Structures are given as structure tokens and as C-alpha cells.
Amino acid sequence: MKIIPSVVCFIEDNGKFLFLERNHEPDLGRYVPPGGKIDNMEDPIVAVKREVREETGLIIDNISYRGTTIHYGKNEEWIVFIFYTNTFTGDIVQGDEGRLFWIAQGDVYKLNLPPGDGYFLDYLFSGVPFFGTFWYNEEDELIDYKIWRIG
Asked: Is pTM beyond 0.90 here?
């Protein structure tokens, strides 16, 4: 099974969060926070700063670790380090990954998120560190999950 380490960052500005409407796989047509794959030998903090800059044009700072999720699919295992910040500089630049937009925290739950993401949002928004494991069937449908509060 291929293991893919990755990062995402939930960026907040005055009660709104920055999301990307994905225009390609994985998660085509779904809404995700900025992020991406960790390069070989790259630190997750360096990776999340790089990915956010590449996808949004923003330079993030004061990054808080919120949790880690593992997603077991039919051919891949994604390990996702999840971060949060409300400190950034620069202007948003629309890129090749999809349309960027701000959305109120309460409306995030209404988005077409990747399977599993909605289950950890309460932990993320409350600042409670968490660890989640998600299992998918052959059709990439979520079939089970477990989330643990850390600490």
C-alpha cells in the first residue's frame, strides 16, 4: 500500500475560513483547506507553509497543530497533519488547484467535504487536539472511523 504524508491548514480570518474547491482528483469537486503532499525528507511545518503559499499566495505564521488523521483506502494510505492559523500576510492569488473562497465557520459543515472531514471539525474549531482513523471501501466510500481526543 502506498503511504502519502500530507498537510492541511485551516486559515481563519474574522470568523471565516479559507477553502479551496478542488478542480482535480483526489477529491474533485469537494471543498478542502489549503494543503498538499509533504515532499521527501520535508518537515510538516515547512510543508504546510510551502503548500499554503503555493496554493493561496499567503504566508502563514503562528501555526498551531490540531491533529492527525489516517485514511485507509483501497490502494493508498493518507497520513494528514492538520494545522490552524489566524496569522498570515499577503493577498490571495487564485491558482491551478481550484477556486479559493472564505466561508463562515458555521457554514463549513454544509460544504461538500471529503468523506471523514466533517467528523473532526468540532475538535478542530474548539482547539482540542485529536487523532482520527478512517477506513474506506473499494469504491472509496467511508465505511468506519474512530476519533480520539489527545490530552
From this structure: yes
